[in-house]
Give the backbone structure.
Amino acid sequence: MTTELLVKALRWVCVEGSVDVDSIELIRRVRQGDDLAWEAFVRLHQARVFGLAYHTLGYAEDARDLTQEVFVRVYQHLSRVPEPEGVVPWLVRITRNACIDAQRRRQARPPAWDLPVEDVAGPVANELTSDESRDAQLRKVQLYQALRTLTDLNREMILLKEIHGLSLEEIARTLGVPLGTVKSRANRARLELVDKLTAAGWGAD
Amino acid sequence: MSPSSDLTASILARTSGVACPRLRALACDAVDGTLDAADARLVEGHTAHCAGCRVLLETLRAAHLALPTLAEIDPGPFFVTRVRQACQPARKLGPWARLLRRPRLAMEGALFGATLFMLVQWVTPTTRGVATVARGLHSLVEAIRVNPPVETEPSDPTLR
């Protein structure tokens, strides 16, 4: 129960935008051997890491394996958490690199059998709550489908900037490209997404 | 379309062309609120008369608000247990043990051993190696002396 309360409190802090301070405190306690702190850290960030992996790879089981791999890597390199930069951009960078490795592996050695086609909305459909109106749910699924049809480059920009809320400077640091390039790429990606959404019927009402 | 907007359209058609591409370039900044006041007023003025650009801005705004809801997806009920189990071996093993579990360690060890063997042979090539070769030659000569090779007739008549 205490852990759940801690997680809820941390989620609230996350929304308020000062998550990194508390994540770093959790990391400090994990280094001292506090298993509860590690569990709280995993619970706090798992949905974000899984979301990024799932949107990038497109398969839930692959994304689950990759998310696990990311957390094991974090656990093995606790001393490398960059405090000034913050935990979230660091996690995003690790996840992104792991996704690139996974995609390269898949291209080099494609699976011997066809991967089963997942439900169009996949795990996103599970996230829909009964509290949301039917219209809101439909829009969420449409948004997810439009995101899946973007080019890899544009989807990555939308993921980092719009979905995970990284600043342009953080994205430039993560991708290793100039700030101006990031800005123009982000704008292009957003406009491509809007074109897809308009074609799907957004803005018609 | 009112007469004034009709007139504007015909004037624009004969001068600069429509301003929609310019609005498209400013649309993201307009939604993010990072436009300066003058540009913001121009954007507002254009969208008041252009339905297409109004839809573009509204869709951009709606997507901007809705996209963060896709950030977090629940990986499933047993995920934390799975991560904790995966982290157990990582914690038990020390850095040396982890090094020993590297997948290419056997190959690296074999390579190191072979290199070491070749180095030793190169540094002390003579005594033992030469003695071995001499013993081998001596054995061969002895074997030939005891059992000399016998001349045999070729069995194939065409070879006679």
